[in-house]
Amino acid sequence: MSRDSRDEGVLVTGLGALTPLGGSAAESWQGLLQQRSGIRSLPADWPEDPPVRIAGTVTADPVEALGRVHARKLDRGEQLAVAAAREAFRDAGEPSVEPERLAVVVGTGIGGVLSALGQDDLYERSGTRKLSSYAVPMLMPNGPAAWVSMDLGARAGARAPVSACAAGAESLALGLDLIRLGRADVVVAGGTEACLHPFMVAAFTQMKALSQQGGDPAAVSRPFDANRSGFVMAEGAAVVVLERAGFARARGARVYGTLAGAAVNSSARHISASDSEGQVLAMRAALRDAGLEPDDIGHVHAHATSTPGGDLAEAEAVAKAIGVHPAVTATKSMTGHMLGASGAFGAMSALLALHHGVVPATLNLDEPDPRVGLDVVAGHNRAVDLDAALANSFGFGGHNVSLVLTRTA
Predict the structure, then answer these.
(1) Cβ-Cβ contacts under 8 Å for 3 (sequence gap 6 or more)
(2) Closest Cα partner for 283 from 269, 296, 268, 270?
(3) Do the beta carbons of residue 198 and residue 176 sit within 8 Å?
(4) Which of the four, 36, 56, 99, 364, has the lowest number of CB atoms within 10 Å?
(5) Residue closest to 137 by CA, chosen among 78, 81, 80, 62
């Protein structure tokens, strides 16, 4: 096999997800098509401070998939990642690949903060002897990738991008590179996040990133709407199986589509503010990598978190880099913002839109912001016959990732 597999292409053969919309990739996709919201009120015992009392919580318990003995060694984000990876690998038909040719790339934005805070509380109350012997592996940001690699027996590397809300998308970009460079035949790639804790909600609230809108939780996340007021935190995991095209076809794999191109850059301007210039550069670079032109893109899955400035910056960037012709959707209107998992789920959504010929509508777009100027799908899902889509993912720190997905004949 050539050490450069670029000409072969990289196919997506398996999908796995646990999200606020469902306990699998298929259930989550149906949730998008049904325009269901996964954003709910937090438990009654949630503290009064911080004032935010809603979030997107996963609908399935990952402990049931892993078993309690194994699950108790893992942070919740690690549990979600392993469960999603197992589903994706099964969905791909459990490809028979040499361990040295199977790699894992699973990113996270925050890491095992639930375990870090929980173990710190335990230490303060009871001292060293009560701490879990797995406390360190639970809080390590590379923990999800490591556990997935052990679960699947992957020995071509367990990589862990930690690039805030772009981590899941960057994982797919790195997986693409690994296959193109001939370092793996199969890569299990995605993102995970589980940080719904009063401290984390308070921290995001303090920086004025979260919506504090009252009323119906399902109506709060409203990307591109004139009355958007911030994002809604969520947890989840999304994982895909990437394969060298020759390898996948030789084994007769079912194919969802192609990861045709990717770009990762950094704005190098501000620790948290969106930067449309860097986003434009990422989108243009992803198109070049895929060998496509802006007119080839018929659908854009927007990062669109429902923040006043962020949505406008991305709208400006999409219009400049791609144009105003694509059908745009923002699924965070239904899932909330799954942070490190969001980019992988966005790519999954864009791929399924091409595969099934339908773009899910954006929920809560009741009064479109006239400054957006994009063709945002709202009200009803839109039937499409498209060959290429682009998925954006941006993160605090100036991380910008754009992925290009294409339909495979």
Answers:
(1) 181, 182
(2) 296
(3) no
(4) 99
(5) 78
Kindly report, residue by residue over 116-170, the tens digit of the pLDDT. Answer: 999 999 999 999 999 999 999 999 999 999 999 999 999 999 999 999 999 999 9
H or E segment to which residue 345 belongs: helix 342-356
* 301 is annotated as an active-site residue: no
CB atoms within 10 A of CB 167: 33
**Candidate list 195, 337, 356, 380, residue with the active-site label:** 337
What is the per-residue pLDDT across 78-95, written as a single tens digit (0 to 9) for each?
A: 999 999 999 999 999 999
* pLDDT single digits (tens) 232-283: 999 999 999 999 999 999 999 999 999 999 999 999 999 999 899 999 999 9
* Burial grade of 315 (CB within 10 A; 0-12, 13-18, 19 or more): buried
195 is catalytic: no
Instruction: Indicate which residue of 299, 301, 303, 399 is catalytic.
Output: 303
Nearest Cα neighbor of 82 from 338, 90, 197, 200 is 90
What does the pLDDT look like over 275-296, one tens digit per residue? 999 999 999 999 999 999 999 9
Q: Which two tokens stand for residue 185?
A: 């035949």
Q: What is the largest CA-CA distance in the chain?
A: 62
Residue 165 is among the residues annotated as catalytic for this protein: yes
The helix (H) or strand (E) run that includes residue 204 is helix 198-206
Question: Which of 70, 165, 195, 299 is an active site residue?
Answer: 165
Strand partners, 10: 244
